[in-house]
Write a structure and sequence with these properties.
Two copies of one chain form a homodimer. Chain A has about 325 residues and is an alpha/beta fold. Chain A has twelve helices and twelve strands. In chain A, helix 5 crosses helix 12 and helix 6 runs parallel beside helix 7. Chain A binds a DNA duplex (16 and 16 nucleotides) through helix 2 and helix 4. Chains A, B: InterPro entries: HTH_LacI (IPR000843), LacI/GalR-like_sensor (IPR046335), Lambda_DNA-bd_dom_sf (IPR010982), Peripla_BP_I (IPR028082).
Chain lengths: ~325, ~325
DNA sequence: CTGAAAGCGCTTACAG
DNA sequence: CTGAAAGCGCTTACAG
């Protein structure tokens, strides 16, 4: 493991000069620069990131916190964030929360000692609760930059890049209502989720706009996973409710709902239409292809990383950025 | 940002003592220990990971290299690896290769300066080619431990934990043959893939065992993605080939194939049965539910991490571990 | 343009 | 059981 002094010695210069060759090559005369590069190649020298980090007080590393990396939406998000981070010369730490608030809080506490410059929070679970807010503000106090990719965080100065989940669910619901479908069930991701709360609002708004009264609405809850969704939709059906459409908060739940339906002999979309509030890469390849509300994740990941890196650099960043969405109609609802 | 000296001053002890309280608390008398803990809490002190890493020469960080994190199998693998790493006190760096060999090589070169103790390689792309082997052996020379979760790497001393892909594809193919289905098409992930090469072998073995001659076999190639698979299966069908079964190297390709079939009015499994060589979390929720060959990913991730951490600690580890698999028969093939 | 020197914040023999 | 001292490998004013 060659050090900078080894290289300096081999090249007949001082360590300072080697460091300069690495960090501001133009500041060193060509002859020496070449000798240094030759020595670096010869010794297969790699700068020690630990020493560099200690000296500079930064890490060139970001952390991504997701609710569940095994779900396809989060996988796609991670991909785009990773690529964007890479393009900026940052490594990406992956942190899976498994939708657990305790994990989230524990992680926020441990992040300062993990050596990250910035953190991207992309979990649907509600962040505006005291223990999380406390942990967040401690993290910020430690000088770690934070951006949120799922919801707005009140008053802590954490920039957010979010889709308007109310509008997302409203559009999804309206799409079904326009076809004259009723009743329509909203399948939410869980009572602890900020996104579900908003999406539910959008569902309600669309229904009211269509002239439905509140007691005609039907909201059921899952936990973002297919299994629970299958069960709760199954229970609903077994209780004699017969929806004409389902708006699912995410795609695994849409699949769970679909299975509950088909197992009971119902057909999609003929008997029941389904829309997901979340688009995933394989959505078009499901059977039937799943209608969903899409955000351009490639662009989204890049923008999140841009904002975070600006925040790390101490620049002013927009407190709130609205990320556009649009409905993609596929076979599950037409 | 309090430092260890601040804490020492506040507690009226030396920095050495604070360090001991953190790293070997029993070595410090209780009274002082308590004072130190109080000072730590009061100052909200967090040890600097950079300083610690520099001093100890380790990073408490692993890297996971996957072919494509947006694909469901890799998402599930990442989840289990992340959790296992976390349980051992390690952070996990996520590196998406996007199935590009150039990215892989670039990454292997850059890993030493990213500050990782160990690397898990879990890409299907063939690692036994010179540029990759060269980059790998440089990485090992830099003192970074490596384990491979997809294939064996010849002679570099990299431990591997792999499923027997030949057997996986053989089992999948035999499952279809047993039902008297023929012809059966093998849909591979790409000529550059080590896993595909093995899987193809398994397909051929099963067919021969069933008495099929080599010129009856049919192998087509994709790139692990649904899009290309849809296209190549579509072309096959349009050329008049009418398979009774398809063995797909991974799940996205199985979905692509399924779409090509259904778009041409064919039914699964009545007209064509499908099996995937890779099980994914939502496999049971596809329509029809997808038969596939399953590996227990929860267990697998844990074992990979165990081996890697042992290797980092300089312990002897098994050069090759066979990970069991079993066929899960679902609606797509029965 | 270049080098000597200081210092980032820890840990760990070493001496007591 | 505890502290003073050295050193991990860099970077960066500072002086020349």
């Amino acid at each position: 493991m060659a050090t900078i002094s080894d290289v300096a010695r081999a090249a007949g210069v001082s360590p300072s000069t080697v460091s300069r060759v690495l960090n501001q090559p133009e500041a060193v005369v060509v002859a020496k620069r070449d000798r240094v590069f030759a020595a670096i190649a010869e010794l297969d020298y790699r700068p020690s990131s630990a020493a560099r980090n200690l000296r500079r007080g930064s890490f060139d590393t970001l952390a991504l916190l997701v609710g569940d990396i095994s779900q396809p939406f989060h996988g796609a998000l991670a991909k785009s964030v990773q690529r964007a981070a890479d393009e900026h010369g940052y490594s990406l730490l992956l942190c899976d929360l498994d939708h657990s608030r305790d994990r989230l809080i524990g992680l926020l506490h441990s992040l300062p000692k993990r050596g990250v410059d910035g953190v991207i929070i992309a979990t649907a679970d509600n962040l505006n609760v005291q223990p999380v807010r406390g942990a967040l503000s401690e993290l910020l106090d430690q000088g770690v930059a934070v951006v949120c990719g799922s919801q707005n965080i009140r008053s802590l100065g954490v920039p957010a890049l979010v889709t308007d989940r109310v509008a997302v669910a409203r559009d999804a619901t309206a799409h079904l209502l326009t076809q004259g479908l009723w009743p329509i069930v909203f399948l939410g991701g869980g009572p602890g989720s900020a996104l579900t709360r908003d999406a539910r609002k959008g569902y309600e708004q669309a229904c009211r706009t269509a002239g439905r009264s509140d007691d005609e609405l039907c909201v059921i809850n899952g936990d973002y996973r297919a299994e629970a969704a299958e069960q709760s939709v199954g229970t609903l059906l077994d209780n004699g409710v017969r929806p004409a459409g389902i708006v699912a908060d995410n795609t695994p739940m849409a699949l769970g709902a679909a299975r509950a339906l088909t197992e009971r002999g119902l057909t999609i979309p003929a008997d029941v239409a389904i829309v997901s509030c979340e688009d995933v890469p394989l959505g078009a390849y499901l059977q039937p292809p799943l209608s969903s509300v899409r955000t351009d994740l490639e662009d989204y990941g890049r923008r999140i990383v841009d904002v975070l890196i600006s925040a790390i650099a101490g620049q002013d960043v927009p407190a709130r950025t609205l990320v556009p969405h649009h409905l993609v109609v596929r076979g599950s609802s037409s």
